[in-house]
Amino acid sequence: MNILILGSGGREHAFAWKISQSPLCSTVFVAPGNAGTASIATNLPIAYTDFVAIAEAIRMHQIELLIVGPEEPLVKGIVDFLRQQPDLASLRIVGPDAQGAQLEGSKDFSKQFMLRYGIPTAASKTFTITTLKEGLAYLANHPLPVVLKADGLAAGKGVIIAGTAAEAQQTMRDMLDGQKFGEAGSKVVVEQFLRGIELSVFVLTDGVNYKILPEAKDYKRIGEDDTGPNTGGMGAVSPVVFANETFLRKVEDKVVKPTLAGLQQEGIRYQGFIFIGLMKVNNEPFVIEYNARMGDPETEVVLPRIQTDFAELMVATADGDLDKITVQVSPQTAVTTVVVSGGYPDVYQKGKIISELERLDDVMAFHAGTLVQNGDVLTNGGRVLALTAQANSLENAVRKSQEAARTVQFDGKQYRKDIGLDLIRYSD
């Protein structure tokens, strides 16, 4: 079958790489794609929010399976739009409709959802511009540190952990009055700070049945030892040493099952990925957030470990047949180090020539923000490459991934040198 993947990052390159290995796949298209996807698939110069152009591409290229990578088209209703096209009724789609995508599209919606279905999460309260004065007073007496979250999509940068009441109050003013995150910050969720260790669990569901995919831990801050501002993600590791069988069973019983039951109870037919961001607090799972898609860069460590035909998994998800599939997972450890542009996550330059890619040995370079121009691979984003290594030990996977990050060259290159080191040192 012909398969279309929407997106332009490392997640979508990983999808294309995995799916192109399947005998079910004739041709893989990626819209808009990047330099990495161009080497294994056909890039289509279409924005992933241009729903009309996407529908036309599906017709033109006789697409039978669509996989939606990023959150923005899901929240804006790409699935709903395509379902309304009578001639595309037989199109298989992996991704929730707009109602289901509200799990990610609105932090307030997801918080209320968790409360309704008894899913463990941090205590919280939501404020808007009309309740700004009340919010500032609430923060004056809130235990510190305190977490403030923009309600809507903010490209992974809408979460601020404030260490003082003054910082928290200024952050709330910046979001609500200063529109720091635009419409995404029109509501602010104030949340109790949880002390623990973070990880992500990924669920694939066809609306009724589900499979739990390999878990991962990502590194969100720009600087070593988790310092500096949040980014879209600077690296990831899978599996996670502190997520033992007992803990993961708690996640399934206390989080996964009630989440899926809640979606069904609310009449939401959810066919796609649910990314569950968790905090392990005293061996108990607490949900920090939901995402309505796979994580990035977590996808770049999760997919290499999945040994089951990925196209077959996607078809089963769209067809409601996940109960007929067994997910086989490699016991190896995967580590990815993200190489980013100088200045990221703030102002950064594009168009820098990337060299030494051909020198990478036994490491997969997933392209996150690149393009090809006049035969050169150029930087075209803040996050440029996710360099994934697999090995029989965490130490060896870290070493191989870091060696790759040192090898690749472009002007202004930066990366974290401590990806995975906390897990090597970890003791429960």
From TrEMBL:
Q: Which domain of life is it from?
A: Bacteria
GO molecular function (one): phosphoribosylamine-glycine ligase activity
Alphabetical list of Gene3D superfamilies matching this protein: 3.40.50.20, ATP-grasp fold, A domain, ATP-grasp fold, B domain, Phosphoribosylglycinamide synthetase, C-terminal domain
The UniProt entry, under PROSITE patterns, shows:
ATP_GRASP (PS50975)
- Name the InterPro entries for this protein: ATP-grasp, ATP_grasp_subdomain_1, PreATP-grasp_dom_sf, PRibGlycinamid_synth_ATP-grasp, PRibGlycinamide_synth, PRibGlycinamide_synth_C-dom, PRibGlycinamide_synth_C_sf, PRibGlycinamide_synth_N
Chain segments annotated as transmembrane: none
| Residues of the ATP-grasp domain | 111-319
Keywords, in A-Z order: ATP-binding, Ligase, Nucleotide-binding, Purine biosynthesis
Which Pfam families did the record assign?
Answer: GARS_A, GARS_C, GARS_N
Question: Could you tell me what reaction this enzyme catalyses?
Answer: 5-phospho-beta-D-ribosylamine + glycine + ATP = N(1)-(5-phospho-beta-D-ribosyl)glycinamide + ADP + phosphate + H(+)
Assigned protein family: Belongs to the GARS family.
| Identification of the protein by name | Phosphoribosylamine--glycine ligase
Organism whose genome encodes this protein: Spirosoma taeanense
Gene coding for it: purD
